[in-house]
Amino acid sequence: xxxxxxCLIVLCAVLVFLYMPIIVLIVNSFNxxxxxxxxAGFTFKWYEALFSPRNREIWLSFKRSLYVAGVATLFSxxxxxxxxxxxxxxxxxxxxxxxxxxxxxxxxxxxxxxxxLLMMFTxxxxxxGMTTVMIAHITFCVSYVAMTVLxxxxxxxxxxxxxxxxxxxGPVYTFFHVSLPILMPGIxxxxxxxxxLSIDDFVITFFVTGTGADTLPLKxxxxxxxxxxMPVINSLSTLMLAFTCLLVGVSRLVASRRPxxxxxxxx
Amino acid sequence: MxxxxxxxxxxxxxxxxxxxxxxxxxxxxxxxxxxxxFTLQTWRGMANPNYPAIVWRTLWISAAxxxxxxxxxxxxxxAIARMKAKWRxxxxxxxxxxxxxxxxxxxxxxRTLLNPEGFLQAVLMSLGLADKSxxxxxxxxxxxxxSVYSFLPFAIMPIYAAAEKxxxxxxEAARDLGAKSFFxxxxxxxxxxxxxxxxxxxxxxxxxxxxxxxxxxxGGTDSELIGNKIYQRTFPDRNLPxxxxxxxxxxxxxxxxxxxxxxxxxxxEEREAKRLAEATSRRMAGGAS
Lengths: 267, 289
Fold this sequence. Notes:
The structure holds two protein chains of two kinds.
Chain A: H1 2-28, H2 45-50, H3 56-89, H4 93-107, H5 110-123, H6 130-153, H7 158-166, H8 171-200, H9 203-208, H10 216-225, H11 230-266
Chain B: H1 3-23, E1 27-28, E2 34-35, H2 41-45, H3 50-81, H4 85-96, H5 103-114, H6 119-126, H7 140-165, H8 169-176, H9 181-192, H10 194-209, H11 213-218, H12 226-234, H13 240-288
Antiparallel strand pairs in B: 1-2
């Protein structure tokens, strides 16, 4: 049992390590002191500053982030699902190459994708802006969706679609009314992953962005870089954290409920 | 079905990658463009003493980050896997939660934490471990700490997934046979979760090699990594061939461990298959006698 105790101590230390910066950040968002070295009293002024018209640009970049993530999620779900279905159905040299194309973006550092896309856009004389940002986001999201859906497809029973064909359903009808509903949980999981990755991406966006296309992470970065309104970043981050926790909590609740519901409807 | 994703990824992943690789064999023109014709001049330029130092620093910081992440993850994974099922999900969730928050915000939180006027400096000064002149920020050590912080969940998760399938009665058996706790941990648990360790190494080493934000925000001018240099050559300097050569070096640094891991996994599978075949033939021989 001695070993377990030692492991437990390391685990506790790691949890403290993981949460310390976040907790300090939350505390500092209510700290009147500008640098957070010492406590100078409770205040809401950083939150007020966040919502003041002076910081409209933050909210604009947030809206831009949501827009880009929405578009990237939609397109990467379509491309990723078709990719997974093709990879699952056929074998051969074409699919081996296809798999390599889907797999490689997952293991390449982001900065390499950023610089390669930038160089292509430069070579083609394309002006960087919202379009290039969206193209980049779709590109790195496709692989994640494809892999998530592929994992789901591996448990897929092909006899179900065969049964649909035998009962006279056409391929289009079978796809939309049989395959798609079964794959939906995989696509939704892949889409959620794509959305979170897109909304959080900094490096790739940083390389392919142009005027008027800064997303929220880029806006935060430039605020950090220019040391402007650091405490406002604290309050913004705290709100983002609260929002993420809420989202994770709700999705956990939904996920833990689902099996019970399915059992009930089956019975 | 193949066409949409194949064409998209060929157009926006494969072709750009080839462009970068070929750009490394061009020379920069003084006006910020690219000179015509192919040359090895850029690669010869990589010998400039600045570059090997940066590549070396990137490699050792990434290796140290990977090592620390794995060393911290092993006991964590062990502890979580030995918990009751209810606790297990909760603690695993707690470890993953920071990962769901914005990456840039987490690095920013560390930057404030390590700031000369920040919380950690104040704590260390009150303990007498630091004074006004100590600088926690803007050096290689800061990069290392923040890298371990950022990539730790990537290491804990695969090792924990392997530990969950590990048969802990083996540890008890070893201890009954007189093995010390640490010996049992090292000789029984560690080989048992080897596959998880291999994926943990890749999951940490690859993003560490490609790091840009961390060295940019908490590193100093004398602790640049490849990622910073790629950015610097691309934007302020407009020297695309040099940026491409650095990007190619980074790709090699990522592909070598990937190929190594694939080789290790394959060899292990072959060995297991061989052992299984031997055991089967032995049992069959035993059955015949």
